[in-house]
Design a protein that fits this description.
Largest interface: A-B, 69 and 65 residues
Distance between the termini of chain B: 6 Å
Number of strands of chain B: 2
Strand content of chain A: 15-25%
Radius of gyration of chain B: 25 Å
Strand content of chain B: under 5%
Number of helices of chain A: 18
Helix content of chain B: over 70%
Largest sheet of chain A: 8 strands, mixed
Radius of gyration of chain A: 26 Å
Oligomer: heterodimer
Number of helices of chain B: 15
Structural class of chain A: alpha+beta
Amino acid sequence: MNKIFFLFVFLFLISCSDNNKNYQSKNYEGKYEKHYGGTLKNAMVGEPNNLIAMIAGDSASSAIAGKIFNTLLTYDENLNLTGEVAKSWKLSSDKKTITFYLNTKMHWADSVPLTCKDIFFTWKVVTNPETRTPYASDYQLVKKAECKDDHTFIITYQEPYAPALDTWATLHILPKHKLEHEDINNTFFSRNPTGSSFYKLKEWVPGQYLSLETNENSILGKPFISKMISRIIPDLSSQFMELSAENLDFMSINPIQYKRIFPERKDLNNNYELNKELGNGYTYFGFNLQKKPFNNINIRKAIDLAINKQEIIDGVLLGLGFEITSPYKPETFWYNSNISKTNFNPDEAKRLIESEGFKLNEKNIYSRNGELLKFEILTNQNKQREMTAVLIQRRLKEIGVDVSIRVLEWASFINQYIKTGDFESVVLGWSLSLDPDQFNIWHSTQNGPGQFNFINFNNKRVDKLLERGRKELDIKKRKQIYDEFSEIIYEEKPVIFLYAGYGLNAIHKRIKGIKNPPPPAGTFHFMEKNWYIPSKFIRNEIN
Amino acid sequence: MLIYLLKRIMWMVPMLIGISLISFFIMHLAPGDITSNEAAFNPKASEESRQKLRELYNLDKPIAIQYGLWLKRIIKLDFGESFASHHRPVLWEKKDQNGNVVPGMIQKALPITLLINVITLLIIFLISILLGTTAAVFKNKIPDRLITFSVFLGFAIPGFWLALMLIYWLGVNEQILPISGLHSLDYENLSSIGKFIDLIKHLFLPVLTSCLSGLAGISLFVRNGMLEVLNKDFINTARAKGVNEKKVIYYHSLRNAILPLITIVGLSIPGLIGGSVIAESIFAIPGMGKLFYDAVLMRDFPVVMGILTIGSFLTLFGNLIADISYALADPRVRKGLM
């Protein structure tokens, strides 16, 4: 819905009402002992589809399922791989076989032991062609899987596959004893799961909320906060109202709330702590490289020089973002920090365009033998992307490039334009995965309909690097490969990296144990192990 | 009369098929399907897997065959299962072999929407008749002007804006009403009176905001109807006979003036099952509007078709009921049908 308008309404409200009049401030400062108990409340915009994450496609499902199920491996707070169900792993000398050594004495929430059989079963399920999952391909690369004993899981790949370990950090392990006689696509288990992680599902009231309670058998130990309630509130303005009334303990907020509303409101400031963390994605301006004028690298470079990225960050994100030069999370291992960014320079941009034989016509648009420098930017209904496109349009107009903008509904955007290649340029985003492999996005073979290299990037060297990167398991050599890959992408400019925004959160001050500033893995990483509510701040409990 | 009724009911069948045919084709004309929306931009989800899903959902078949399959199921009143909310039955709950119950989507959403809309409609009619009559009696005087102005104001204020204002005032600042949701989180532990009060508190703002926008139409309808009747000869006769003014207005005029409202009630029946997407989103009420809207965005065809079919059935049914009750209420119409 029209969020910007809602925000104006908010600003109006703030200016005309004395909202602090009834407010009695409560002091949440000070040191408190760690304490078990309490209920954490939050909200989500959509209802989960299915608590079996490999079948669900939505983020609400993964968020809840992630609290109930474990993975074989996980990332620590500095984003290094570490064990979860597995305590360690070993790579064979030919790099094709991985042996996972599992923790012993693990149990499901219903006290049945969790063993290698469950992991083997999960792999069988995800690779079964009957299973309705879009995520099968990574696991189908496993040629052979076996359980040597109850606590040793061995998998063998056709050839070395570097992202392998990462794939085992996202696959939720399912209980064989509950599911072996069930149709995975159509089982009540997806609404009433049995897991092994910190929480178990207590209640699911359709359309209203899901509540979780402590799983006493959790293989990672008990969480400090014993209950979680996730309410379903589709409208973000209403969520913010609930936050204002202290009915939610945390919420992810937008730049306007972070920068303008919180500083104005004494009550919010007293009750909530703000923090910002590295976001999980970036926004880019991408070209259809098969079409004129984008098949010309000088034109792409000129467009890059003519766009003022800092202006976009200031205008769209109120400064709460940063420019990136490679498609990885900044300040993390895979990010190439040696690439220096190009600076805003419209004069140089004009010179580059003119070096290709273009001249300004009477309408101040560049043309060459009747070919006008003119194109359309396509984007989906996303306020930030729309605003970004407008800022790009303005800057390009200043140097003599005529740009129009078209905004589309998501499904039409994907199916009629992206899949068919019927677009000139797009403002879009990619999320950033933790493994550096980006074969699906940049390799020249991945440009078919429905595949992700829809911009038709085709570079022999990058193809080689991406192929090598997938097979290289030595982390130092792998880093070199992806550093070179990042350099070529930044030099060739198949897309222009615009910004990576911060993730912004407001968290109630009654909750302690939160790391601020957040670690690279984010504010909510292993919150079960860190967050607690001091007994003094536990409110009337709901049983 | 009976023959007329039978004829009308027989006519509903081809009409329903026609409506479903058109809706089905329009829905499938929209670009994309469920497989392109779920995990659409996740590089880990491959195109082959998506093609496989398309086959599992029969989405790869020609559209005429898909329609045939749908029609075959719907004749047995099987509305199918949702694509997006994995296998939740569209219409009614189902039990698996272990006796676990999966609730139906329309089954859960419809009572909520119906409850809100019926209350809203009742309040709108009650207040509108009162306001309309008053306005007609005081035609062009201050009460009339005031009423017309206020109902139009209610009509003109954007509902979502008003809703947010009221939430902010009564929910956040004064904290006397809940902000969103249908029940409090401790609803299960309340006594039955407590549950009732809790529900009233949660429904107060949603009902209030939808009432305000509905008052204008009906109250002006009543006002104009009343004015017309008040100028009729039989009213003059009544007055001339010395019937007291109250009886003239509430007995002789009003009964005649609200007759056409029956048609409006009939036409409101399909509206009763359609919720407002905006109000339901703001107040976090899991009703029909949001269900339909999300299903369209996700291209969740079984849910969309289920709601459209039930909606069109109720529209036709509503028209029929309106005609019949009109006949029952008005002897002049009844005669015409005989």
